[in-house]
Target: Acrosin
Amino acid sequence: HTPQRTGSKIASAKIVGGDSAPYGAYPWQVEIKAYKPLSHKYEHHCAGAVIGDRVVLTAAHCISNLDHPEKMRIIVGKMDLSMNEYHERTYKPEKIIIHSDFRKMGPHSNDIAIIKVKDANNRGIQFNTHVQPICLPDSLSRRADVGDWCTVTGWGAQKSDDLESLSETLQVAAVPLWDLETCRGSDVYGGRDQSILDSMVCAGIKEGGVDACGGDSGGPLACQVNGRFVLTGLVSWGDGCAKKNRPGVYTRVSHYISWIQESLKKLGI
Model:
């Protein structure tokens, strides 16, 4: 995906400056819908990533701001929000674990949660050409590195000043990874309520114009490592969307591998 610079067309909610993704190109993408009592229907809420046939990773803040998280719906095989698609399947959550230290080191710290998907007919999420898990970072092999271009996907706000401007089709944008020292600089995110922790990763175009935005939260930042996509980050926070010197900040998945493994044991997976 060719990275687009400032002034490119504005794309989707939490993906600003992206392009529509081909159906099935990012088969680990999850849409999380929340039940809205006022409208009596399920509406787009967040995103996530499939990491196993019973497991989805997302951001903790996607769960903590729901009154009834047990009423959420997890949709896979989705690209176009305006229609039902051939590979689309909807699942209910069985159990949710939010990181116990969420918000302990600032309002966006440890922003990770794991969802166990309810079994349907003794089968979890069924994998096919359009629904597949994404690899987790491997502690032994090379990981995505500073300067690598990665892809962020979501249906988030297309306009940075209008968080209701959801995209109907899944958007993808290419963003380079930053080193933490640059991201901690006084001209970027230094001196804020939330310091940039080692458990975070910053990614974005320095000049702005391309970013995740509202509605993309919890979604995957995927990087190619040794020819395969690896889940490097989860959309967490940022200062607005696609601003100059304000990269997106993601939960660094490699920091949480042991927590994920412990959580899977607790969930009986």
